[in-house]
Design the sequence.
């Protein structure tokens, strides 16, 4: 059974720091891994999607890497800003999901960036 | 346009009420999803519709009844809910069957449900 774990559960950093969020998964048989951002009481915003054949994806100050063989992904945020404060969720789409698009989510990392 | 809309934003209902949540997307996506999210927890998948057919029901109680009237709309009918069903209900949509697993799920803002 696929399990997704995110460490740490919470993180507080001063503005301007570079930081790394971690995600691990137990079964490497995946279609893709996605990183989402969620602001309190809001829906999820897709940040980056890494296909199983890819090693990394970049968008602006965000860089996500995927090491499928070791079951790990990291989300790197450069030059953090208070507006980056949110909960970050990673999710994998198992190979067995077929066309259903089913995602397995981690518990999330809640990030606070202090001015 | 990458928007998924959900109505209502907030809903308070009694345990004997019948209500419906609505979700709409105009991105041409043929997969639509309902998730339930409790405070400080990740979303839990409830239902998946693929090409307007129910493809996943994650053992959800029958007091939740999904409906997909067409490729743009998804409803969740609620009846005889319990207080523990209070949560944020999220709708999402995605394309289906893209090569290499490139389907991104786009989420709506959610409906905050309170059952009294």
Sequence:
């Amino acid at each position: 059974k696929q399990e997704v774990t995110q460490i740490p559960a919470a993180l507080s950093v001063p503005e301007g720091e570079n930081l790394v969020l971690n995600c691990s998964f137990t079964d490497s048989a995946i279609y893709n891994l996605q990183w989402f951002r969620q602001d309190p009481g809001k829906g999820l915003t897709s940040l980056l999607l890494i296909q199983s054949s890819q090693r990394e994806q970049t968008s602006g100050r965000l860089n996500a890497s995927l090491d499928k063989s070791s079951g790990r992904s990291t989300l790197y945020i450069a030059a953090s800003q208070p507006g980056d404060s949110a909960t970050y969720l990673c999710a994998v789409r198992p190979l067995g999901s077929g066309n259903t698009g089913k995602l397995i989510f981690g518990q999330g990392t809640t990030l606070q960036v202090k001015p | 346009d990458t928007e998924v809309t959900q109505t209502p934003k907030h809903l308070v209902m009694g345990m004997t009420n019948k209500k419906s949540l609505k979700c709409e997307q105009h991105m041409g996506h043929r997969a639509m999803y309902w998730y339930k999210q409790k405070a400080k927890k990740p979303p839990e998948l409830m239902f998946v519709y693929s090409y307007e057919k129910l493809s996943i029901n994650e053992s959800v109680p029958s007091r939740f009844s999904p409906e997909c009237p067409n490729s743009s709309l998804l409803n969740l009918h609620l009846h005889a809910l319990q207080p523990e069903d209070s949560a944020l209900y999220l709708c999402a949509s995605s394309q289906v069957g893209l090569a290499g697993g490139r389907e991104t799920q786009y989420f709506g803002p959610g409906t905050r449900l309170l059952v009294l």
